[in-house]
Amino acid sequence: MDKYFSEEQKNKTVAFIAVDMSKDESADLIEKFEVTSSSLFIRGHKNDKEQIENLTEFGFMNAISNPEKLEEKIKTTVQSML
């Protein structure tokens, strides 16, 4: 996120949020996204409409074997929601 979206993070149009599933305050997000284990979601708003992209499977398939591909997918997905 810092590499591609440092300005957006500063002005709070982009944020990285890690959610700890063991904490009670995470319950609403866990339920909304139907999370049962480590997951990667990108959530944004465009034209006043919420957009959610589940990159969990893509992330697990590429994180070790092709991290550049995962990085590019995250980057383009975030950009599409700005």
Can you put this structure into words, describing what you see?
The structure is a single chain. A two-stranded antiparallel sheet has the order 1-2. It has four helices and two strands; from the N terminus they run H-H-E-E-H-H. The protein has one domain (2-80). It has 82 residues and is of the alpha+beta class. Strand 1 and strand 2 form a beta hairpin. It is globular. The two termini are 14 Å apart.
Question: In brief, what are we looking at here?
Answer:
The chain has helices at about 1-10, 25-35, 55-60, 65-80; strands at about 40-45, 50-55.
SSE topology:
Blueprint: H1 2-10, H2 27-33, E1 41-46, E2 49-54, H3 56-62, H4 67-80
Antiparallel strand pairs: 1-2
Annotation field: number of helices:
4
Strand order of the largest sheet: 1-2
Instruction: Give the mean pLDDT.
Output: 93
What is the makeup of the main sheet? 2 strands, antiparallel
Q: Write down the domain tally.
A: 1
Proportion in β-strands? 5-15%
Morphology: globular
The secondary-structure element order is HHEEHH
Radius of gyration: 13 Å
Number of strands: 2
Q: Distance between the terminal alpha carbons, to the nearest Å?
A: 14 Å
Q: Level of helix content?
A: 40-55%
SSE class: alpha+beta
The residue ranges in which pLDDT falls below 50 over 5 or more consecutive positions are none
Give structural attributes.
single chain, 82 residues, alpha+beta, two-stranded antiparallel ribbon, 2 strands, 15% strand, globular
